[in-house]
TrEMBL record:
Record keywords, A-Z: Methyltransferase, S-adenosyl-L-methionine, Transferase, tRNA processing
Catalytic activity annotation: guanosine(46) in tRNA + S-adenosyl-L-methionine = N(7)-methylguanosine(46) in tRNA + S-adenosyl-L-homocysteine
Enzyme class, broadest EC rank: transferase
Cross-referenced InterPro entries: SAM-dependent_MTases_sf (IPR029063), tRNA_(Gua-N-7)_MeTrfase_Trmb (IPR003358), tRNA_methyltr_TrmB_bact (IPR055361)
EC code(s) of this entry: 2.1.1.33
Record gene name: trmB
Protein family according to the UniProt entry: Belongs to the class I-like SAM-binding methyltransferase superfamily. TrmB family.
GO molecular function, one term: tRNA (guanine(46)-N7)-methyltransferase activity
Pfam families named among the record's database cross-references: Methyltransf_4
Biological role stated in the UniProt entry: Catalyzes the formation of N(7)-methylguanine at position 46 (m7G46) in tRNA.
Pathway recorded for this protein: tRNA modification; N(7)-methylguanine-tRNA biosynthesis
The name this protein goes by in its record: tRNA (guanine-N(7)-)-methyltransferase
Binding site for substrate: K176, D208, T269, N270, F271, E272
Length: 290
């Protein structure tokens, strides 16, 4: 089993610090004025994760897909089509993509439980990528690959109809009002996910942040290319709150929205555990193509 390109590319991709002439860290130039759903950080990997990277990257981490050294953008001519799937996974099984896979607990468990499916984990954060490599390597998974890439940009490179499911579980909440635009679920991503999905495919989303749940409904429920396939009725405030006025939410006008039962294919990750421990309600969404 080999990923597409060389190990040398992969290790270069983990060294992401960019320094200005004055010696100050700067944002890499490739990002232009794009609104990003993540903050670029490049902490050192501890020994265990560095070892995992060195041992397993060549098997699992897709290299040669980034626009340049240290870039989290996909290269401009990348197309993730059925030929690419055949080349990388070695078969034409249905492809599931997890956007923002974090430590990889979920995608690794799913890949282990479903050898009949192909999985692609998209994550930007070095330690998350390294931990996913560790899980994949230790379990000897053959149907999982990882791309260290800005997920919304990668989704633009997916050919129409190639993906059977997209998962976005516990996306970064960006609680301040002025940061809501950084939330990864956005109309542009929804359109790209729809195009990538085969007819009948689903986008599964989960969040433990009530205000994010309202945000998902606003982005997704009015679309004519997705149907909300949930069967649960949930009452939510119909106005947004931010970090400063989150406590006001209960007193705001509420309305009923449709959501889903907990997705049984999701393992309990640390993010979900933290949300539950804090007494938050988990909101699950299933949007099916139409
Ligand atoms: C709150 S964590 C949740 C992780 C995982 N889904 C879980 O449930 O445990 C959100 C993850 O999304 C990743 N992320 C945020 N924006 C991203 C982007 N544009 N592309 C890829 N990953 C992203 C973050 O680095 C982080 O690991």
């Amino acid at each position: 089993m080999t990923a597409e390109n060389s190990t040398a590319d992969l290790t270069a991709a983990s060294d992401t610090t960019v320094v200005s002439a004055a010696g100050e860290p700067t944002r890499p130039p490739l990002y232009g004025r794009k609104v990003l759903s993540f903050v670029r950080r490049s902490p050192r990997l501890d020994d265990r994760l560095q070892r995992a990277w060195d041992t397993y990257a060549h098997n699992y981490l897709l290299s040669g897909i980034n626009a340049g050294e240290g870039s989290l953008d996909p290269r401009a001519d990348l197309t993730l089509d059925t030929a690419y799937v055949q080349r990388v996974w070695g078969n034409a099984n249905p492809l599931v993509i997890e956007i923002g896979s974090g430590q990889g607990e979920n995608v690794a468990a799913a890949a282990e439980a479903h050898p009949e499916l192909n999985f692609l984990a998209l994550e930007v954060y070095d330690p998350g990528v390294a931990h996913t490599l560790l899980l994949a390597g230790k379990r000897g998974l053959r149907n999982l690959r990882i791309a260290q890439v800005n997920a919304p940009e990668l989704m633009k490179a997916v050919a129409p109809g190639v993906v059977s499911e997209v998962w976005t579980f516990f996306p970064d909440p960006w609680p301040k009002m002025k940061h809501h635009k950084r939330r990864i679920v956005q109309p542009e991503l929804a359109a790209d996910v729809r195009r990538a999905l085969a007819d009948g495919g689903v986008w599964r989303i989960a969040t433990d942040i009530e205000d994010y749940a309202l945000h998902v409904h606003e982005v997704m429920d009015g679309r004519d290319d997705f149907a909300n396939a949930g069967a649960l009725t949930v009452s939510l405030p119909t106005e947004h709150v931010g970090k400063g006025n989150a406590a006001d939410a209960a007193g705001l006008p509420h309305a009923d929205f449709t959501e889903s039962e907990r997705f049984e294919g999701r393992v309990l990750t640390n993010f979900e555990k933290k949300g539950l421990a804090a007494g938050r309600v988990i909101h699950d969404f299933t949007y099916r193509t139409r």
